[in-house]
């Protein structure tokens, strides 16, 4: 058994199929119909519980190759969990996967009702426990738990030292990820790692770039020096967890990178940090965008792309004073992409690596390559 307590006073008891223990975090919902392993291992979900709108979870098991990172969300909630799995690439059950990673697994709850609650109240803090089942004690634990905006989440998921990425995109012929060919000449880009997804790095290298991954706290002076020496051709600002406004030190360094006119590309948290560094603070959406079925309009081509999304924060409309808006979300018309007028920078809010999700936005990685060619 596992007990749940939400900050709106809702108390539930359900079944546990993951790790044991007591964890608190922010509760969000995800509308993806597949790719739960990629969702669970997405560093952007650090500090969060994920409610899946898909009622059946576990049918394809889990494997040792499809993780986005070493990091995980706090827990997942599903209507029904299937211990029996059927997939040729599966190595173990989802339950075993969650236990290995220390992730709580909760099933036997009315996920439709929970999602309606989140749509009404917005994102809520929650505590779940396989140990403590007293409502009042769980309420006290949640009251003392740090809010996600005050948690140092990025520092817990960023690389501690400079590393290189070794893979490129998934090959459906071999059903494995292609190794990166060091013998071919590539433009080197510095990846500021705020919690980068592995498949974003794969796609960067798939379009002919070499990803050199730097810790989130890297000084701008170090990157500017590397750019001036032509050791790197540009900078990528990755996705990551938490409130972008809490990363004040990183924002100050990004301001210097913008002033240095270094070509840059940001995704998700990186997109938000670029906006804040230019003087346009982000705001929090009521319940965010999480899923692999969100329609986004490319304002240049008028094409509608179905995209993968995972964010609670958004950049403001005022950004149009210094940037051309390139993409908009068709659910709520929020900004999904910009190209800056005052610097060689592009950024998108959604996840063009599409993991999980359709591949309709892969062209954005090629646009970054074209941007680099101009410098």
Overall spatial form: globular
Q: Span between N and C termini?
A: 58 Å
Uncertain regions: pLDDT < 50 for 5+ in a row? Answer: none
Strand residues, percent: 25-35%
Structural class: alpha/beta
Estimate the mean pLDDT confidence. 96
Care to count the β-strands? 21
Give the oligomer, counting copies of the same chain as homo and different chains as hetero: single chain
Q: How are the strands ordered across the major sheet?
A: 10-14-13-15-16-21-20-19-17-18
Largest beta-sheet characterization: 10 strands, mixed
Instruction: Please tell me how large the radius of gyration is.
Output: 20 Å
Query: So how many helices?
Result: 10
Helix content: 10-25%
Summarize the structure.
It is built from ten helices and 21 strands. With 375 residues, it is of the alpha/beta class. Strand 1 and strand 2 (11-16) form a beta hairpin.
Helix and strand arrangement:
Layout: E1 2-6, E2 11-16, E3 22-30, H1 36-40, E4 48-52, E5 56-57, E6 75-78, E7 80-81, H2 94-101, E8 104-107, H3 111-121, E9 124-129, H4 135-144, H5 153-157, E10 163-164, E11 167-171, E12 176-179, E13 187-193, H6 198-206, E14 209-215, H7 220-228, E15 234-237, H8 248-259, E16 264-267, H9 269-277, E17 283-298, E18 304-314, E19 323-329, E20 335-340, E21 345-348, H10 363-373
Parallel strand pairs: 3-4, 4-6, 5-7, 6-8, 13-14, 13-15, 15-16, 16-21
Antiparallel strand pairs: 1-2, 1-9, 2-8, 3-9, 10-14, 11-12, 17-18, 17-19, 19-20, 20-21
């Amino acid at each position: 058994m596992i007990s749940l307590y939400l900050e709106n006073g809702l108390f539930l008891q359900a079944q546990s199929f993951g790790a044991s223990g007591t964890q608190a975090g922010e509760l969000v919902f995800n509308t993806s119909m597949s790719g739960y392993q990629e969702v669970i291992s997405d560093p952007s979900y650090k500090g969060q519980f994920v409610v899946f709108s898909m009622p059946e979870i576990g049918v394809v098991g889990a494997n040792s190759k499809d993780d986005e990172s070493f990091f995980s969300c706090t827990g997942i909630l599903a209507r029904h969990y299937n211990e029996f799995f059927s997939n040729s690439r599966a190595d173990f059950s989802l339950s075993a996967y969650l236990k290995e990673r220390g992730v709580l697994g909760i099933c036997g709850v009315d996920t439709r009702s929970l999602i309606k609650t989140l749509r009404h109240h917005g994102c809520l803090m929650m505590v779940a426990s396989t140990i403590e089942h007293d409502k009042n004690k769980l309420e006290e634990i949640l009251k003392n738990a740090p809010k996600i905006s005050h948690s140092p989440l990025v520092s817990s998921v960023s690389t501690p030292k400079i590393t290189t990425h070794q893979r490129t995109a998934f090959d459906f012929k071999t059903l494995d990820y292609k190794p990166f060919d060091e013998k071919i000449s590539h433009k080197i880009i510095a990846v500021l790692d705020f919690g980068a997804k592995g498949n974003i790095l794969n796609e960067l290298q798939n379009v002919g770039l070499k990803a050199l991954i730097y810790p989130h706290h890297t000084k701008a002076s170090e990157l500017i020096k590397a750019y001036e020496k032509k050791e790197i051709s540009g900078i990528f600002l990755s996705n990551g967890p938490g409130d972008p406004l809490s990363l004040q030190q990183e924002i100050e360094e990004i301001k210097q990178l913008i002033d240095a006119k270094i070509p840059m590309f940001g995704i998700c948290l990186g997109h938000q940090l670029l906006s804040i560094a230019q003087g346009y603070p982000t705001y929090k959406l009521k319940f965010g965008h999480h899923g692999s079925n969100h329609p986004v309009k490319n304002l240049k081509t008028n094409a509608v792309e179905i995209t993968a999304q995972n964010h609670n924060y958004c950049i403001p409309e005022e950004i149009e004073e210094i940037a051309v808006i390139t993409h908009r979300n068709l659910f709520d018309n929020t900004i999904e992409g910009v190209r800056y007028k005052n610097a060689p920078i592009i950024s998108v809010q959604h996840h063009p690596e599409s993991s999980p999700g359709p591949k309709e936005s892969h062209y954005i990685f090629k646009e970054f390559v074209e941007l680099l060619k101009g410098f």
